[in-house]
Amino acid sequence: MEATPRRARRHDPDRRDRLIEATLGIIADHGVAGVSHRSVARAADVPLGSTTYHFTSLDDLLAEAFTRHGDSIARVFEERMRAAPDREAAIDSVAEHISADLLGASPDLVLSVELYVAAARTPALRTVTQAWMRRSRQALERHFDPTTAREIDALIEGLVLHSALSTDPMTPAQIRAALHRFLP
Amino acid sequence: MEATPRRARRHDPDRRDRLIEATLGIIADHGVAGVSHRSVARAADVPLGSTTYHFTSLDDLLAEAFTRHGDSIARVFEERMRAAPDREAAIDSVAEHISADLLGASPDLVLSVELYVAAARTPALRTVTQAWMRRSRQALERHFDPTTAREIDALIEGLVLHSALSTDPMTPAQIRAALHRFLP
Amino acid sequence: MEATPRRARRHDPDRRDRLIEATLGIIADHGVAGVSHRSVARAADVPLGSTTYHFTSLDDLLAEAFTRHGDSIARVFEERMRAAPDREAAIDSVAEHISADLLGASPDLVLSVELYVAAARTPALRTVTQAWMRRSRQALERHFDPTTAREIDALIEGLVLHSALSTDPMTPAQIRAALHRFLP
Amino acid sequence: MEATPRRARRHDPDRRDRLIEATLGIIADHGVAGVSHRSVARAADVPLGSTTYHFTSLDDLLAEAFTRHGDSIARVFEERMRAAPDREAAIDSVAEHISADLLGASPDLVLSVELYVAAARTPALRTVTQAWMRRSRQALERHFDPTTAREIDALIEGLVLHSALSTDPMTPAQIRAALHRFLP
DNA sequence: AATGAATGAGTATTCATTCAT
DNA sequence: TATGAATGAATACTCATTCAT
Q1: What is the dihedral of CA D150, D154, D156, D161, to 10 degrees?
Q2: Highest mean pLDDT: which range of A103-112, B95-104, D132-141
Q3: Among residues B69, B91, B177, D33, which is most buried (max CB within 10 A)?
Q4: In the prediction, which pLDDT does D13 show?
Q5: C161–D157: do the CB atoms touch at under 8 Å?
Q6: CA-CA distance, A54 to D131, in Å (whole number)?
Q7: Distance A39 CA to E6 C1' (A)
Q8: Average pLDDT, whole number, for chain B?
């Protein structure tokens, strides 16, 4: 009798995509603990059932979100390393990466730390961080030997974590100084 | 002396204490996300009501647990720095601290990482990590200038985090080598 | 400021009991498939959280409900067998049991059948049916040898099931006739 | 003729059939409660939409599945009764039917019991069981009078149910003995 | 003719917290 | 002082069914 249009949302491609983006936003704002089907659905302005339709589980959604995050950071870093003409420039680029890519865009800062810890618990996520670590180290190996590359990687994580938590985080200049002291 | 009743738990001093220890155990095993009044009560073999009686809220309980954790790690580190006769020995002691205190006793490893992240979210916890950081840096300043102390601190965090997540974590020897390279 | 009485339901002993009774009612009316925390809470006029407080799981609740059902039927049957002066009277009592206890009180009829099937799936429930079967057979063994007792037990189940499903169920007289034919 | 697409399932006659078989398999393995469009689609390796395309509702699918089950059992039983030369042989054939057809092929055992109960709830299914009962009784009436036929039918159900639930089910020999005692 | 996407209702269960005793 | 009972909100997840393509 009535032509009930209900909600008229049908056919929304790249909704899956929006859900992933929304998830990253929530992790940045409220942490992994803040991610629930409900919170994601609300953030993406999508019905609740849609989240469970597109992802078989919350862990699945988290893994995809973190994969995307790791990918985008790694891509930028690889580009930086590729562009660096020599070791000297590479060191500066690493500093830039920390200050600008990891710490500068504040949401990303927390995102990385959240991923670190979530990975400590969830095997499925460990795969993600490890893939990211591997790419990161390979990019570094363009300019440094493997042992040094690994150490730099650890230093990067330490500087990021430290800055995320400290009341007086290091300035970009201090970060560059620390790296140059380590790699004279 | 007492006519042992059914549960015989009446007058149980240091129950508060046991609750805190139980909480740390749960964080180590299941993460901060695993902490609930129920899980703590179960782990401490204590009635549910007891957890809300001794702590006004879960966050309160978490803060106390983390405080104790930070204290005990800091105390050990301070002792190491105090015992080190000179800068050279101090560097080795830092390496020892990472390998033995932070990574060796595996539960503590995760505990620290969990604390790092929880602190990134909860202001009440940030106080705890910062107090810990301050003590840590002051202990380092017995042997190093403030700038170096801060950098070492960041490096420590990086090495811990890295080892917690890597498939091939650094050996104690590699950790010592990294520190010596940084502090020639 | 306000003396908010909220719902004023506090202190309701034997609520656990009412939940079990409500569950049996639902099984009778809608089958085991109709039992959910919500349906039980509604039927017992109790808040949803109350059902999960008193029973660790739905299966737990079902097991308790069926145990009570089996107990009450078994108790009645035992009394009938005890009261029967001789074999002849016992046969009539079995017929009475089927017609009056199992089929007469119509809710119970379906209850028993539901239990039979639920037990075929859930090991925890199988314990319940088996305990009931054992009591039933022991009661029969007051008047019949073990082999006969087992056969009568099967016949009882068949007659109940048959009557529950047939369009023209047997009359009490027909049931008695069937038993007498089997036990001449 | 066709440019084989990704899934190459186009034009798949007897898909309807496969869906019914898959449904019976699920009932046997997980009970009627385990039947959902999703579980059936998964078991039949068919897209989800296909299940709702071929059957207007889940109940419809269940009814068809049970009809097929009843048919196949009834057909076998009719054949057994037809083949029996006399009453004596018919009794043995009934025993055979219980031991071999109903209890022997274990999935079928549970299937029948599930059908019994589902029928107690769903009128649409009651039609199915009643049709089956009618055929069963008619087959028996080749050798027995109507009253006896009905009683045998009940006994069959009892023996099946009993065996499905008992820890020490009757042996084929015991089943035959019980029938012969009932039909001397 | 066939199907992937979509969605609202419903599932069991966990939980922080309050409160009467 | 201590605790078992109580409860409303929230959690992840499943599902029958509808519908656009």
Answers
A1: 160
A2: D132-141
A3: B69
A4: 67
A5: yes
A6: 44
A7: 19
A8: 86
How wide is the angle at C-alpha B27 spanned by C-alphas B137 and A24, nearest 5°? Answer: 85
Mean pLDDT of C21-33: 92
Q: Do B165 and A133 touch (CB under 8 A)?
A: yes
Mean pLDDT of the C1-5 span: 37
Distance CA A181, CA D160 (A): 83
Which DSSP string do the residues of C125-147 spell out, in sequence order? HHHHHHHHHHHHHHHHTTTS-HH
Return the minimum-mean-pLDDT range out of B65-79, C8-22, D100-114: D100-114
CA pair distance A97, A103, nearest whole angstrom: 8
Q: In this complex, do A155 and B150 lie within 8 Å of one another by their Cβ atoms?
A: no
The tokens for A37 are 């089907």
Quick one: average pLDDT of B22-40?
A: 92
**Joined tokens for residue C100:** 């009056």
Neighbouring CB atoms inside 10 A of B97's CB total 22
Q: What is the pLDDT of residues C122-176, one digit of tens each?
A: 878 888 888 998 999 999 999 999 999 999 998 898 888 888 777 778 899 999 9
Q: Which nucleotide is nearest to D52 (CA to C1')?
A: F17
Q: Residue B108 CA to chain centroid, in angstroms?
A: 6
Query: Can you tell me the distance from the alpha carbon of D158 to that of D102, in angstroms, rounded to the nearest whole number?
Result: 12
Asked whether the beta carbons of B139 and B146 are under 8 A apart, the reply is no
What's the Cα-to-Cα distance from D90 to each of C154, D148, D176, rounded to whole Å?
Answer: 21, 13, 11
CA distance C19 to C21: 5
On average, the pLDDT of chain A sits at 87
Averaged confidence pLDDT in chain C: 87
Q: What is the DSSP letter of A33?
A: G
The predicted pLDDT at position C14 comes to 86
Does the structure show a pLDDT above 80 at D110? no
Q: CA B149 to CA B140: how far, in whole Å?
A: 6
List pLDDT tens digits, range C85-98. 999 999 999 999 99
Residue C8 identity: A
Tell me what pLDDT residue B118 has: 84
Q: Best interface-test mutation with D: which of C161, C170, C180, C182 has the largest number of D CBs within 10 A? A: C161
For the record, the structure tokens of A130 come out as 């490890």
C24/F2 CA-to-C1' distance in Å: 36
Structure tokens at B88: 């050279």
Cβ distance of D165 and C116 shorter than 8 Å:
yes
State the Cα–Cα distance between residues C25 and C108, nearest whole angstrom. Answer: 9
Q: Is D128 on the interface with C (CB under 8 A)?
A: no
Q: Which pair of structure tokens corresponds to residue D115? A: 């059908």
Rounded distance in angstroms from the CA atom of residue A62 to the C1' atom of nucleotide F10: 19
Q: Give the whole-angstrom CA distance, residue B68 versus residue B53.
A: 20
D143-166: pLDDT as tens digits: 999 999 999 998 898 888 888 777
pLDDT category of residue D3 using cuts at 50, 70 and 90? very low
3-state secondary structure of A178: helix
What is d(CA B136, CA C17) in angstroms, rounded to the nearest whole number? 58
C15-182: CATH homologous superfamily? Tetracycline Repressor, domain 2 (1.10.357.10)
Closest-CA residue to A178 (of C56, B148, D164, D98) = B148
Q: What's chain D look like in SS3? A: CCCCCCCCCCCCCCHHHHHHHHHHHHHHHHCHHHCCHHHHHHHHCCCHHHHHHHCCCHHHHHHHHHHHHHHHHHHHHHHHHHHCCCHHHHHHHHHHHHHHHHHHCHHHHHHHHHHHHHHHHCHHHHHHHHHHHHHHHHHHCCCCCHHHHHHHHHHHHHHHHHHHHCCCCCCHHHHHHHHHHHCC
pTM score, whole prediction:
0.84
